[in-house]
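Homework-ish question, so no full write-ups if that breaks the rules, but can someone show me the predicted structure for this set?
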Amino acid sequence: MDNARLELEKAVLATKLPPNMYMFRDMGTSNAHLLIGARTNAKNVYTLKIMLKDFPSSAPVVYTTKPLKDRNGNDLEVSHELHNYGTSDGKTRICHCPDSSWTPRVSLYRVYIKCRLWLECYEIYLRTGQSIDTLINEINRQGGNPTR
Amino acid sequence: MKCIYIDKDEALTFLYSEDNHIEGQSYEWEGEDVVHVHTIAQPHAFGHVTSAYWHKSVLPTAIPSQEQYHIVVFSDNEAKAYYVNSKFQSEECKVKFIPSKDEMFSRAKGILEVDILSDKRVMIIGLGSFGSQIAIELAKAGVGEFSLFDFDRVELHNLARHTCTIKDLGRLKTNAIKDAIIGKNKLARVDLFPININEHHTLMDKEVAKADLVICATDNNQSRFALTKCLLKNNKVAIFGRAVTRAEGGDVFRHRPGGPCYNCLVGSQAYAMAAEEITNRSQLPAYVSEEEANAMIQVGLSSDIEPICNLIVKLALVELSKGQNSGIESLENELEYDYYIWANRRERRHVGWAPFNNAKNMPTILKWYGARIAKDEHCPSCSSNTVLDLGEGLNDGVLSENFEGIELDTEE
Ligand SMILES: [Zn+2]
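A: Not a homework solution, just the prediction itself:
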């Protein structure tokens, strides 16, 4: 990410979130990432790790810093139903945007919002067993926002 | 009478050398009475291979004891060729020459179209059904220098739409296409990069800087966006082409310095985002099952790809030969659009298009339509006044905005 874009992203985040809730780390390296806190409606707290390699040319890879569990207490496995890329090295990679609909216009703040929505769906799944994929499609329909 | 083809450049190199006799190779198309002789072994040989002995002025006294071979003798400014069989009976053959460097571009001789492109360098990213055809067409047109990018190998499922043949199965596409280019233009200089461009942005930038024109024939936006960055930095022209689902149609975009970029296009009305043709597994997320993937991979016909490649080649030739006596100068004033749309069939996205036999003034199939794309003044790639997508309307009050108690997990 070039400097101008980084400044733009920082300016957006500064207007939306308290400063202690996010942190850019290892910038300028291949491990550059944004750590960002998320508190769901049910008051559970997560930290999202948004990898910035190739951002904004491609959709950033997003992990939760702790492994997410399925309803049986096992690490989430790669699944369309549960809309994620599986758990490895203690992190679960969630799917916030299909590569085919990514554009460089998408801000990190929007990525964050998509991940927050994903986490809400994940928690509904934990409570009810509904598929995350179905829930996300439902939200997208309601929000009047087709595929993203 | 057998006919022997001699490469004039190889013959001249031999005649100017100190050697009076050398052994090369001959390649015979059996049963066709056609033999190509070379002073050096050919990398990917064809036909029946035997020795070819090249001599200046006189034949040597010692005769090689071999089953059969060919002899080329130069004397008195003349080349003669003989076939010698296992009983040492010789038979004179007809000699034909493969033109030398300075004869290659004579239109009358018909090897290459024009010589004005011999010092042009074209970078081609992606050597699938699009890139392979385009590369060979540009070689035929006389483009002299190429840099080819693709990390894939030729696989069975490629063959129907690819220039490569069964005998190329398993080969790196870069190397196979290099052979095809050299087969059309033996003077072409071809640099090979069998790598994933998405993982080598620095190299991409370096190669873009060296190129006169870039052809982006990949199947994903990630590479298109990354390339756009390099194009803007280096002020280069590029042509992007792709097919939409099952090749029911396709589009072509030309990026010129100062004009709209690929990102401006993606944000525009004219562009249909979700319609990208899915031709292989790697375009789909990992969580899509094998079964679902098989249903989503919908490959079009080669004849549906062809017209799109053809426009890309025309646009490329216009860009490369601007202001020169190319024979296609008149196109310069007509192919002035940024974006071109083509439909092969009235399906899906083109279902509302008019029938070909009764189109009146409506858009129909098998015709190109050009569009001007406005430069987006808030483009995230080419504008200094970028406006980002903040996802307004996405949240819609669903998410609580109480951030209390959040502590970042910085441990991992
Ligand atoms: Zn732009």
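Now go work out the reasoning yourself. Hint: Residues B 260-261, 263-264, 376, 379, 381-382 surround zinc ion (CB under 6 Å).
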